[in-house]
Input
Amino acid sequence: MKVLVINCGSSSIKYQLFDMPDKRVIAKGLVERIGDQGSALVFEHDGEKNRVEQPISDHDAGVALILKALVDPKDGVIGDIKEIVACGHRVVHGGEAFTGSVVINDKVIATIEKVADLAPLHNPPNLTGIRAAQHALPDVPQIACFDTAFHTSIPEVAYMYALPYELYEKYGIRRYGFHGTSHRYVARRAAKILGRHKYNINCITCHMGNGSSITAMRDGKSVDTSMGLTPLEGVAMGTRCGDIDPALLFYLADKGYDIDALNKLCNKQSGVLGLSGVSNDVRTVSEKAQQGDERCQLAIDVFCYKIKKYIGAYTAVLGRIDAVIFTGGIGENAPDIRAAICDELYQIGIVMDTDRNEQVVGVEGEVTRSGSPVKVLVIPTDEEIAIAGDTYDMALELAGGSTTDAPRADAAVDDLGAAKAR
Ligand code: ADP
Output
């Protein structure tokens, strides 16, 4: 049984085709620059890379091209499109409505549309991808997996802003959190590695990529996370400022900045890029810092300091932690950043192992000394495999063959790491 996973942006469609239940990736690729010059399908089938440049006018054309490539008699990986039994979609914002992945119907689409103003850059293209897939695969169940869903267990005390309550009632102003699929995936893997039940682990997961967020989990469930109403809140990121004093926006407005300029400033010109003046790319900025560039060093220091502060805060929230988990491009690949965050966290029970930390790059592994009361684990994230798991699980359920009565979102990722290891 094949499951197609789609992650749709405004001008791109990323996809992976999984063979289920093995969760083996048999094809993956990207349609890029949709509606623009130089649009192309870039794909990898059975390890072979290809690039097909051709006009791709819209998302419908993009999905059609993906499906055509999958069944291509020469380069394709499946004989018939009917082999695809379900299609999973990454949807960034589900508001308060979705506590797990759902089968898409008109009501679900209307709800995703309703909360689109909370994620104006993401939800509309996600919906475009859903519609294009519905169009191309009308007989196949379409499943939505929300970045926000895993965080719906966060209690009121953590999700409410100290603003007039009416704003929550009227506009849904509260903290939602993002990267939920990634946080859930790495936490479930961590539970497996530590030999614990997935609901018997207290941990802090650090997803550090271009966007970064930190999540506190009690008994395997999210109880707080650093991103808020939007993915701007929290730690410093590639181009996003993270937590700031909101009054500085009024101050800058007084100096002549309008809403668009402030939005751009906070989302696109800040973070590692803003501080370093060089790049949003942590690897580039780290290299420059090592060569003596002081602003680059400052950018790295601020990036690490804010994450360290969140780890401290979430340790206080949780009381007891079993593990801190690093994931995302930076968390997985940058031992120096992990060391800068964790080397002095003895007081919360973290005893780093320098050699192990240096060795664990882009792979799963422990980077604390044996016997460290709190383990630090590196776990490469895989949001697509988590979405494929949810999608397959729900397709089975729809077909009346569900094998589990656990909550869907958790059942789906339970054994994913084992699948990845295969
Ligand atoms: P996205 O949020 O776009 O999915 P990724 O998870 O791919 O981002 O992470 C991208 C970030 O990871 C970039 O800042 C990149 O510099 C960083 N990164 C990747 N490899 C390394 C490395 N070896 N050292 C430091 N940073 C790295």
About this structure: Residues 209-211, 238, 281-283, 286, 328-330, 333-334 surround adenosine-5'-diphosphate (CB under 6 Å). Residues 198-378 form a domain with the Nucleotidyltransferase; domain 5 fold (CATH 3.30.420.40). The chain is about 40% helix and 20% strand.
